[in-house]
Amino acid sequence: MSVKIEKTENNNELKLEFTIEAKKFDEGMKKVYAKTAKYINIPGFRKGKAPMAVVEKHYGPEVFYEDTFNEIVPEEYERELKENNIEAVSKPDIEVKQIGKGQDLIFTAVVQTKPEVKLGKYKGIQLKKVEYNVSDEDINHELGHMLDRNSRLVNVEDRPVEDGDITVIDFEGFVNDVAFEGGKGENYELAIGSKTFIPGFEDQIIGMKIDEERDINVKFPEEYFSEELKGKDAVFKVKLHEIKKKELPELNDDFAKDTSEFDTLDELKASIKEKLEHENKHRAEHEMEDAVVKAAVETVEVEIPSGMVETEVDNMVKDMETRLSYQGVRLEQYLQMVGKSMEDFRKEHEENAKTSVKTRLTLEAIVKAENIEASEEDVNKKVEEMAAMYGKTVEELKANEQFVTYVKDSIKNEEVIKFLMDNAKIK
Length: 427
What we know:
Layout: E1 2-7, E2 13-20, H1 22-36, H2 52-59, H3 65-83, E3 93-98, E4 105-112, E5 126-127, H4 136-149, E6 152-155, E7 166-175, E8 178-191, H5 201-205, E9 213-219, E10 233-247, H6 253-259, H7 265-298, H8 306-325, H9 331-338, H10 342-348, H11 350-369, H12 376-390, H13 394-398, H14 401-422, E11 425-426
Parallel strand pairs: 5-11
Antiparallel strand pairs: 1-2, 2-4, 3-4, 6-10, 7-8, 7-10, 9-10
């Protein structure tokens, strides 16, 4: 096999012309035939028993060309990239020049490569010190959450609905006197003030009494996910069954004893303050780290290939799909709900993708410039932590070359951020 490599008129782009000997291509065809023969049915032969020559005569020799190409090319392509130290960052744009039995396979692959990064000033970056103090209001806010978690619901029968109550209702929605799909519920528990229903709905529940029936008039928002209901006036027929309210425990030493490891409310407050101070410290550190990385990135000169951006957007799409799946929602459903196409979604994420790619390229360039390495000790420690997390053995994880590379890269990333912070001028 031979390959010719030339630069195209575009920066960070190469054109590779591959020539694979006819003998290798023909051998590849035989392998493909051996794999697919059992699926081939030709009159006069038992299924899977027709000789290769008969199959070629019946369907034409080109029947095996595409599969043969896919059989032999990927391995050859990857080997040439490795041997020529070409770091491809996009899928190759393939054009077949010649293909056929008894012929050399000739094709070109146009591929984008990792760009050169010209670093600016990344040492001595000016940073403003970030600090967050813990106030009494912050502590009381946490205590409020604790009270809410330890509250109990009690039935209310001597008054109408008030803001903050939890109601149990039947409802059915109508547009132009016609009931619409998804607009009906029975014994539905609705917290007044939660803003989980259409704007104006919960406000009109206020004042209702148990067993009362009421028509509630609302207007669906223009951005509502259902095309049929967007901007439409609707009437909900509502019947109120129950009114409940949260009853909060008294905030005292007994509450501290019942809900925590502490004997007094003062001790509980001190613990909350310590926890918030710890969180604030890490919050401030992360903000300063983000700031120093952003500042370093802004000084960099680099032309980002479109292929890297596309790949990053692909990753963002996959991440969104994963997060939505935890909620039992498919990405297609989500896009329909928000009235967007996949093209719209991808376009919205392009700028963030560019920033992400530029940031990664910047940090990699600094790692190289400063000879930052991941020590064996740090790698082993990280692998042990992740083995315990995923219920795997250290040996299992280390056997995965890609995983080890990921661990090394993550350590280098941590170290380069630490390097930037150590060399920053914080005021």
